[in-house]
Design goal:
8-stranded mixed β-barrel; elongated; alpha/beta; binds ligand C2E; binds magnesium ion; 518 residues; 5-stranded mixed sheet
């Protein structure tokens, strides 16, 4: 074998074979190693890409978990997290022994007034636009350091850190209310809503975990005050939050359950003592709670978007009753109360027109009352609805006059026929010269605008006499009759005769048919 060395030595052969095979092994291994390295590099690259992907999926998930998809604002979970961290920071700072006073925090709870009717009447995409624009406006009005979050349908919250006191928060609250009061431009339409804001400050108004619910209670107080305003939390506001929630659920079933009823209170002509009509007042006969006052459940219905449903029931029931009375030969003018939320919706005029037609009632037999403060809360909506109702031939009245801040020029623009003086003035009229002077001025003002004046809440003969001397046209109150069911009203009209009103006669109700043709 040519390659064998002459001096053949098996050892050398074995060793060289071993070396050769080792070398080839090493060469092989190196190649494998390089391959593995390449593979590892590839794998690492893939891993990195996968990681990046995972990261972005994670981020997305985080966003989904913490951001509101419609407005891009933090959601409730993120807000609560920030609030808890801020409270913990604030507590630590208080304990750090520097003697420095505690950094205060505040939560401002914002709820849009009249959002539901906009959403219902203009559709959900318009509603979404309003929410997005509202979110932008709230962010603009807030301070840079504040967190604005959306925590429910039309509910937003704002977290303010490092506040010196409640005054700071009230400045911001006012800005938020103003920001929402400007009309919204939705697909070329002017949409008017407003906002109610509740403010709760930590630690002044309780522990951090109660801040949101306290701000919510304060917001609700702002709503009850007519909306488009803010309120600072006070301890009495907290009571009944649970109660409201359960009432809200039960109210949803009240219409179908036949638990609603209209009671009627007469309005008596000052000069003749004749009945000029009745006001329909909603009653809720709750199966366990008994009679629930509209002063309690109307604000709940307004807050939870149920007022349009209730209002529609009232419109239909009042018209049905007018027809039933007409069938018995009694033509009665009936006044119903409208909430500003109903006026904001587009349908109220159509609903009333349809109900009148369905029950064959003349439009002039129906009178719609809207409180002065509600009409001021949304001037444009009131004007539009009043114009629509006036075109139908429905009569209009401004209720609880004296409690709002309407201007003479505003009143002149409304096609109303009647003004009702709030019962707080009537209650004081015997004891207070001021109340008497105000009532006197209101009667003059109303008459100069061609409006008739009704005084509500007349409880005594003394009040009645003063009101008549001042020229009040109609009187309504417990002195004459309390609100009562339809059949009780008929019995009262046929049997009752107001004191010192010799000319009073139930037959005038029939004569009303002529008066109604005005
Ligand atoms: P309002 O429209 O100003 O109705 C007059 C309220 O004064 C009624 O209270 C009536 O029972 C009460 N009242 C009448 N005479 C006297 C009196 O001599 N003394 C005193 N102290 N009070 C008297 P009610 O029935 O509790 O209604 C409260 C408010 O709830 C109403 O005030 C009205 O704003 C609202 N409301 C009632 N029914 C409806 C409704 O169907 N729809 C809407 N949106 N609101 C309604
Ligand atoms: Mg009324
Ligand atoms: Mg009233």
């Amino acid at each position: 074998m040519a390659f064998l060395p002459s001096s053949y030595n098996p050892w050398v052969v074995t060793t060289s074979l071993l070396i050769a095979s080792f070398a080839s092994y090493v060469a092989l291994d190196l190649a494998k190693h390089a391959r593995m390295q390449r593979r590892t590099a590839l794998l690492a690259g893939a891993l990195e890409a996968a990681n990046a992907q995972l990261h972005s999926v994670n981020e997305e998930l985080k966003q989904q978990a913490f951001l509101d998809p419609l407005t891009g604002l933090p959601n409730r979970a993120l807000f609560e997290d920030r609030l808890m961290h801020a409270a913990a920071r604030s507590e630590r700072a208080a304990r750090d022994g520097t003697g420095r006073s505690i950094d205060k925090l505040a939560v401002l709870f914002i709820d849009l007034d009249g959002f539901k009717p906009v959403n219902d009447s203009l559709g959900h995409s318009a509603g979404d636009q309003v929410l997005k624009q509202a979110a932008d406006r709230l962010c603009q009005a807030a301070r840079k350091s504040d967190t604005v979050a959306r925590i429910g349908g039309d509910e937003f919250v704002l977290l303010m850190e490092d506040v010196a006191g409640a005054e700071d928060c009230e400045v911001v609250a006012r800005r938020l209310v103003e920001a929402l009061a400007t009309p919204f431009d939705i697909a070329g339409r002017q949409v008017e809503i407003s906002g109610s804001v509740g403010v709760a400050v930590y630690p002044d108004h309780g522990l951090a975990d109660k801040l949101v619910s306290h701000a919510d209670a304060a917001m609700y107080a702002a709503k009850r005050a007519g909306g488009n305003t803010h309120k600072l939390f006070a301890s009495h506001m907290d009571a009944g939050a649970f109660e409201q929630l359960s009432l809200q659920n039960e109210l949803r079933h009240a219409v179908e359950g036949g638990q609603l009823q209209l009671h009627y209170q007469p309005k008596v002509c000052g000069k003749t003592g004749h009945i000029r009509g009745v006001e329909a007042l909603l009653r809720w006969r709750h199966p366990e709670r008994g009679m629930v006052s509209p002063a309690i459940f109307i604000p709940i219905a307004e807050r939870f978007g149920m007022i349009t449903g209730l209002g529609d029931w009232v419109i239909d029931e009042a018209c049905r009753q007018m027809q039933a009375w007409a069938d018995d030969g009694v033509r009665m003018r009936v006044a119903i109360n409208l909430s500003v939320h109903q006026l904001r919706g587009e349908q109220v005029v159509r609903r009333i027109e349809e109900a009148l037609a369905r029950h064959h009632v003349q439009p002039s037999q129906l009178l719609c009352e809207i409180t002065e403060s509600a009409s001021m809360e949304d001037i444009r909506a009131t004007q539009r609805a009043f114009d629509g109702l006036a075109r139908l031939g429905v009569y209009l009245s401004i209720d609880d006059f004296g409690t709002g801040y309407s201007s003479l020029s505003y009143l002149r623009q409304l096609p109303a026929q009647q003004l009702k003086i709030d019962r707080s003035f009537v209650g004081d009229i015997e004891a207070s010269d001021d109340a008497r002077a105000i009532v006197d001025a209101v009667i003059h003002l109303a008459h100069s605008l061609g409006l008739t004046v009704v005084a509500e809440g007349v409880e005594t003969a003394g009040q009645r006499d003063i009101l008549l001397a001042l020229g009040c046209d109609e009187l309504q109150g417990y002195y004459f009759a309390k609100p009562m069911p339809a059949d009780a009203l008929m019995a009262w009209m046929h049997g009752h005769k107001p004191q010192d009103a010799p000319e009073f006669s139930p037959s005038v109700v029939l004569a009303l048919a002529d008066e109604l043709q005005i």
